[in-house]
Design goal:
The protein is mainly α. The chain is 60% helix and 8% strand. The chain has helices spanning 3-11, 21-43, and strands at residues 15-16, 19-20. The chain has a two-stranded antiparallel ribbon. This is Conjugal transfer protein.
């Protein structure tokens, strides 16, 4: 499967704002990873230690 062929059929070009689609795909992947890491981090409960008695 050639992603560039699918992309060209959908949008008619392989670049956006003069930058190749590979850049945008990689930026999207990094954005998704960062969002997932933030969701996991902010969803964690604080660790309880024994000194609060």
């Amino acid at each position: 499967m050639k992603w560039s062929t699918i992309w060209i059929k959908l949008f008619g070009t392989t670049s956006l704002f003069g930058v190749d689609m590979g850049f945008w795909v990689s930026i999207s992947a990094v954005l998704l990873i960062v969002l997932a890491m933030n969701l996991v981090f902010w969803g964690m409960k604080p660790k309880k230690d024994g000194s609060e008695k």
